[in-house]
Amino acid sequence: LAIALADAEFVWFLVDDALVVESFDVVAAATALRRDDCLLAVHARLHPGVTWCHPQDAPCAPPAVFDVVGGDVGKAPALLAFDRSGLSGDWSYAWDLAGGLYRGTDASAVVRDIVRPGPGNDAAAHPNRLEANGNAALRRLGLTSQRPRSACPAVKALVIVTVNRVQDVYSAPVYDATPAPSLDALDALVDDAAADLDVAMYAKTSHDSAHVGDWFPSPQERPSKPPRVSVLIAAKNEEATIVDAVRSALDEGDIVEEVVVIDDHSTDGTRAAVAAIDDARVRVLESSGHGLAEALNFGLKMCSCDVVARLDADDVFAAGQLNRHVARFADLRRRGRVAACGGAAV
Known about the structure:
Blueprint lengths: L1 H6 L2 E3 L5 E3 L5 H10 L3 E5 L8 E2 L4 E2 L7 E3 L9 E5 L16 E4 H11 L12 H15 L1 H4 L2 E5 L4 E4 L21 H7 L9 H6 L6 E2 L16 E7 L6 H9 L5 E8 L6 H6 L6 E5 L5 H11 L4 E4 L10 H14 L12
Parallel strand pairs: 3-9, 10-11, 12-13, 12-15, 13-14
Antiparallel strand pairs: 1-8, 2-10, 3-8, 4-5, 6-7, 7-9
Helix pairs in contact: 3-4
């Protein structure tokens, strides 16, 4: 990790519960670090409205003075720089994995200082430990005095939706409920892998802390009918396995519109074995015999459905696998997230 960080000019740390709610100009932030040696980091989770530190359960006043960093004349500033001396809570937290942007050399030096050879070294075994030990490393290395300033967005750009393991390492009183939700209860909130968060709600809700306990799921649309699927199989001399492969696709039910088998000039009984399958959804075609890639490209052109599922001739779909993958793919594609989806289960 230290070597990888050193190879990068800049490193932007994000944890799994960090949610970007407004545009954060990473290029502008990196340019600010490049131009000002006194800047240690740009913290995406901070903004002038942060006045409470949940990990310390205490107020943390923002800097009294901010300096505008770059930006065009007449436009609202994007970044604000400040001196960390005399600040408390999140404003004094120099090493930050929830949206902190650093020089690669600085990040590498911190990791090397923390992760020292030897048994039982768990200083970086958890993000919260890595953060706490990282701040101590910055002081040991003299980086906090060498670079006494940091920067942040002028408006809220990122929040930390506290639904993860921070609860089992440090006391983080984010939630009003007494007692705070258990880890199992928090896990249940995100149990649906297809669920999304309503970024617009987080953006417009007033927050005085970087850590938030709000849970704003996106309104769920009524599930649409799953798309029909073409299953594409390219085969060459796969007589022993091709029938099982085709039947596993057919067994996925009505979602499978067709199974297109491309025979790449087999010299055994592959083509005859497929032709003997009594199902109108099965089509077997012959390719030019120039290899798997060309056979698949040819087969793709022959598929009639909008969604194509690729299956090896010596593989099978686990029961229900294709239905689950297609439903997930359709949901992500509807949101403009993906063009392809992969997985394995046998």
